[in-house]
Amino acid sequence: MNRPWAQFTFDEALAGIAAAGFRFFGFLAQQRKMLIDATTAPEDVDAAVAQVRRHGLEPRFIPSSISLDQPEADAVAQVQRLVDNARRAGIPVLLEMGHSKPENYQKYFAVMRRAAPYAHQQGITIALKPHGGLSTTGDDCLRGVETVDHPAYRLCFDPGNLLYYAGQRPEVELPKLAPYVAAMCVKDETGGAGPDRSVSVTPGDGEVDFRAVFKILNDHGFAGKPAIVETLAGSTLDELNREAKRACEYLTQVLRGI
Questions:
Q1: What whole-number distance in Å separates Cα of residue 146 and Cα of residue 149?
Q2: Which pLDDT does position 223 carry in this prediction?
Q3: HSE (CB half, 13 Å, CA atoms) of 95?
Q4: How far apart, in whole angstroms, are the C-alpha atoms of residue 50 and residue 80?
Q5: Per residue in 39-62, pLDDT tens?
Q6: Per-residue pLDDT averaged across 252-258, rounded?
Q7: Are the C-beta atoms of 185 and 162 separated by less than 8 Å?
Q8: What is the overall mean pLDDT for the chain?
Q9: Architecture of the structural domain at 3-256
């Protein structure tokens, strides 16, 4: 994902990702601007995707964060517009962030139950990731999938976020989640759920046991498309590009050993 390069230009982010050896790309905000969301015009979707592909990358994620400060029908329509943009972009996964206010959980799940059949018709999977709030713990994520109860609403496994938000070991929580995992955010973490926790960590340098995680996913038939790195250490452009290359080399070694 372009998150580590968010303060640089989009082309600089894409160049660093491609040069590191990655093949797939996930959209997040660039310089505080979301490049594809529910309001993006078709021609702007096409332009963003073309920019990604010029670097030899194929887009696989766009983020989904739905406002619930609107009527339920409008929120459903917002998800549907995002699905339409994902389909136009050839992107199979909406990276769903869940919701943080308990008083809105019931409304959130109602929206997702209504939106999932439309996503299914368009060949798009809405994938909920651990992100605090209603998807803090492994059990929370499982409860979310069971509540929506539709094959187009699945999970994006994020091992770093399970440590960060819940202090849970990813390889312990994963077996019950793995049958529902449709995508993965490759994220490491240090500090558990403590006061000095951080996800600005290059995969392989933190507390996540990626060998165990990928072994469990592999045993449940997850093919790894998409599994996309979200965070890295470093702050300068040179540091980020170097860390991206290290991440790609490390993950390639891990996957070859499974």
A1: 5
A2: 87
A3: 26
A4: 23
A5: 999 999 999 999 999 999 999 999
A6: 95
A7: no
A8: 97
A9: Alpha-Beta Barrel (3.20)
- Tokens 């549907």 label which residue? 80
What local confidence, expressed as pLDDT, does residue 225 receive? 82
State residue 6's pLDDT score.
97
Angle 33-36-38 from CA coordinates, rounded to 5°: 110
Between strands 125-128 and 24-26, the pairing is unpaired
pTM score, whole prediction: 0.97
Each domain of the chain, given as residue ranges in start order, spans 3-256
